[in-house]
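Hey, I'm writing a tutorial for new members on how sequence and structure tokens pair up, and I'd like a real worked example in the thread rather than a made-up one. If someone can provide the structure for the chain below, I'll link this post from the tutorial.
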Amino acid sequence: MKSIKFIASAFALCIAASAVADDEGVVNPDSTGFKFTDVTIVKTTPVRDQNQSGTCWCFSGDTFLESEIMGAQQGREVDLSEMYTVRMCYEEKALRFVRMYGQANFSEGGGLLDVPYIIRRYGAMPEEAYPGLNYGEDSHDHSELAATLTAYLKSVCRGKKLSTAWFEGFKGILDAYFGEVPETFTYNGQTYTPQSYAQSLNLNLDNYVALTSFTHHPFYSPFVLEVPDNWCFGLYMNIPLDELKAVIDNSLNNGHAVLWAADVSEDGFNFRRGFAVMPKEKAEADMTEEERNEWKVISDRERKNRTKDIKGPVDEIEVTQESRQEMFDRQLTTDDHGMVIVGIATDQNGKRYYKVQNSWNTNQLYGGFFYVSEPYLLAKTMSILVNKTVIPSNIKSKIAM
């Protein structure tokens, strides 16, 4: 997911939340105009806070797998170390960046396939064994770290040949910020290596498949999703949009969460107030004469502000396979953020929404969760990761898995 854009939006949300708290106190659910009723909910581990780090992909990926463990192993609850995975991902990205002469993506961001990829190669650690806060902070702030790592690698790539020390120097920076990775650690009275701890989770990573829906590649075939943070060139299975929605619904209805990558830059996305919608612009023909006259004279900025001023359920756009593709091709839908879809809900009018768990702390209307309308999901989903068992048989039969 796009880390630069994410960090800016996360910072803005943090400032906005503080301002609201100072001026208005806690947001009252009644003031939003939405009344959501949860219909189907998948149990997950608690909401966490990525704070000022572009690591949504890891927080959401860990939450998704923790939920899978909980569902398959009689409620077993684990808390995986995000920063162990982030650290090992940084090492992999650095090697690829240098091997491609500095012409590859190197950033904080990542994709849905990154957590399984790192667990396969390097194992996993529990949070208490590797919190990754070795730099005088109580919560994650990677602004200094990210700038330092990027500058270091650019410097390495300026030379005519590489020294034999550059990679150890890179790992030294990670050691300073995250802490050295122990060869072994003790957890719940047992001694583990990262590899043996990963084995103890009893996760079959072959059970997970990434899906998306775009028309610039054939359906029912995998392709490398063309977004910068797909740095490991992961393959995503391409299926029609209605089938993508059917997979999501079937997963939730069968007790499995869905790992979700999506665009969160829309005017209708309001995490603070707990909703994400795709409002339909009001046509002039539907306006009163007074509204039309006023609309003609107000500024573009004021028009935009009024469009964003959502006070409850609204008429939303119709999303088709073609309109979704156009949004992607024009970069109106971008790879912003990783979250976990945990349920299905309805509003006071009976309209369906998806309940989503975020990693922007709990100081928000619904304790870190928010509700996404079906049009928003269909338009702004970049990709999903699901357990293969939830894919309906009529769809699975068309996919070479």
